[in-house]
């Protein structure tokens, strides 16, 4: 399907725009699941000031969503009305000063972990276990192997829907388990983390263990979106899913992973509807079996076909 063109009008209203603005741009290839429809408009800003300019001039009635590296994301088959923002090269730098590591929101989490390791900074190895980029990790308080973003973050930057550039402290983020309390319209552009002095070889060994654990327990070579549901307090989502008899459950081209049943997999021909329906079926069965309401960890955007 395709949406009415809004790009021509936006370009005429924003003569100073420097980034790329594309109409009816496919999004499936930008997600790890490789499913979903197009964005009515896809904007890839040149840098933070370009993003600020765009939002300062974007009509309030046009909805906007942001995607990162597309890991924990389902784009529905009907596509996404309005504007989808994707940060790219202008948000892809990593700099280190003393024990602080500053990274743009488009930097893959693993790249930040490696940069810190090479600089002998301990405390950021957990980022090796989080799929996706820094922006998404900030938005969901991403965590793995005993640490979360809230344990390492000292500052972040964001642009809001009015185009204001904001400087945020850790406390401003309102973090809880897999939750960020910052307003939904904030698009994070940068993060600064603080670690502690460590031995590069020891940090590398810690990261190797994380890599080995992921490869042994998670279907990382499949088309998947990472952990599907948040762990309920005191429980493990995968155990609840397994107990409800959902391991290997299949709907259309989507399947609950046999290796780790808190992961959903696109077997090759799944639609976004297949994946989301499978997730909702798992939620229903877990509720019937254990009384627990599983909460989606994967973000879902757009409209059904």
Kindly describe this structure.
The protein is α+β, with helices and mostly antiparallel strands and 305 residues long. The chain has 3 domains: 83 residues, Uridine Diphospho-n-acetylenolpyruvylglucosamine Reductase, domain 2, CATH 3.30.43; 123 residues, 2-Layer Sandwich (Uridine Diphospho-n-acetylenolpyruvylglucosamine Reductase, domain 3), CATH 3.30.465.10; 84 residues, Uridine Diphospho-n-acetylenolpyruvylglucosamine Reductase, domain 1, CATH 3.90.78.10. It has 7 helices and 19 strands. The strands form 6 sheets. The chain has a 5-stranded antiparallel sheet with strand order 6-7-13-11-12. A 4-stranded mixed sheet has the order 1-2-5-3, with no helix packed on it. Strands 15-18-17-16 form a 4-stranded antiparallel sheet. Helix 3 packs antiparallel against helix 5. It starts with 6 loop residues before the first helix and ends with a strand. The model has no long low-confidence stretch (mean pLDDT 95).
